[in-house]
Design goal:
single chain; about 375 residues; alpha+beta; Rossmann fold; 2 domains; seven-stranded antiparallel sheet; six-stranded mixed sheet; about 30% helix
Length: about 375
């Protein structure tokens, strides 16, 4: 488990430091304060900042729009305008030699991932061509030609991979990579049918996990007996089977909350020994369903050794979290993201933590933790 978190120069975060994390962590705050960005940072860390995941983050937010538009008009995009710049603080690349993105624990520092901009050049050697970093390109006489801007990804003091900015991001989507941690996520939009099929196949052969899914779905409809997936090639539909009649219903016919619940259960049961990231936990879920769902998450997170990070906009989500925490032995943490009021911080985003004792006081007093 991550026992702390440090994020620097990533999207909205100039520098965010969280000294203590629990097994279950809930983040609240106003819009545009970085709740989703924080989950993105955790995903990057867990997946070793693979080019694939960085490309996915850009494409999921539609930040590739300028490249697509210029490509349509057959115009090239300068390296400085590459859409990967949106990952960096202020939405622009740092200058050469400046600090880039850092993500990882507060300590030890060497375990943090680092992403920075560098200049490379293809040079000829006796052994053939070699792609080499040019440390001080502006001081070369005569000026260097045919250099490239590259994002270096450093892990444990070693350069693990390079992202060449002159390539289309979509070329990275099929690249295989080795992850640091198993990470599963439930975004604000429903999981794709193909993703659902993969997650379901992973647990379908394990009767205990299958039963857990059915028990979880019963939080909304206690008459559900089983669920099956029908279809193929991306056209896959979850079908609910009931114990009191022969009717078969598509899971989606029970509303967005049932789909969201199903995706949370699938992701959690596939996150063994890793991280589960849930963006907007309360999506479609009635407030009466949220406390027992948190109870189930607490229980399964312990059994499967999963560390959970979730966000919410809802006060119901906060109170449900606190109610479940009363009956859990797990360490739970609530964090409010907000702007620092210190002049020296220039309004940077900070996290205020509420461990269980403080969390209980917050909900009893109905204090506004959302900002």
């Amino acid at each position: 488990m991550l026992n702390s978190l440090y994020i620097k120069n990533f999207r909205l975060f100039q520098e965010l430091q969280i000294e203590r994390l629990g097994r279950i962590n809930l983040f609240v705050g106003k819009n545009n304060l970085g709740k989703s960005c924080l989950l993105e940072a955790l995903r990057i860390y867990a997946e070793n900042a693979s080019p694939k995941v960085l490309a996915e983050l850009i494409l999921e937010r539609g930040e590739n729009w300028e490249f697509e538009m210029r490509q349509y008009h057959n115009h090239s995009l300068p390296d400085s305008d590459n859409p990967l710049r949106y990952l960096f603080y202020g939405y622009h690349f740092p200058q050469l030699g400046e600090e880039g993105i850092e993500i990882g624990p507060v300590q030890p520092i060497q375990e943090r991932l680092k992403l920075r901009l560098q200049t490379y050049q293809m040079i000829e050697t006796k052994e053939g061509q070699r792609f080499t970093r040019i440390d001080q390109p502006h001081q070369s006489t005569p000026p260097l030609e045919e250099t490239e801007s590259v994002i270096e990804i450093e892990e444990n003091g070693e350069i693990k991979s390079l992202i060449r900015l002159n390539k289309d991001l979509k070329t990275y989507l099929t690249k295989r990579h080795q992850t640091r941690l198993n990470v599963q996520r439930v975004p604000t939009q429903p999981l794709t049918p193909d993703k659902v099929a993969v997650l379901w196949d992973n647990i379908n052969v394990q009767p205990t996990l299958r039963k857990t899914v059915f028990q979880g779905l019963q939080l909304i409809d206690e008459k559900i007996q089983e669920l099956v997936l029908v279809g193929r090639n991306g056209n896959i539909t979850p079908i609910l089977i009931y114990n009191d009649h022969d009717q078969r219903l598509p899971l989606s016919s029970l509303g967005d909350g049932m789909t969201h619940l199903f995706h949370i259960l699938l992701a959690l049961l596939n996150a063994r020994d890793g991280l589960l990231l849930i963006d907007e936990f309360e999506n479609g879920l009635h407030y009466t369903v949220q406390p027992p769902l948190w109870n189930l998450i607490f229980k399964l997170a312990n059994e499967l050794n999963v560390q959970v990070f979730a966000t919410t906009h809802s006060w119901d989500g906060v109170t449900a979290f606190e109610q479940a925490a009363q009956h859990s032995d797990e360490e739970v943490m609530l964090f409010r993201l907000g702007r620092s009021v210190r002049k020296s911080d220039n309004g940077k985003v900070i996290a205020i933590d509420y461990a269980y004792g403080k969390l209980q006081a917050v909900t009893e007093a109905k204090l506004e933790v959302r900002g």
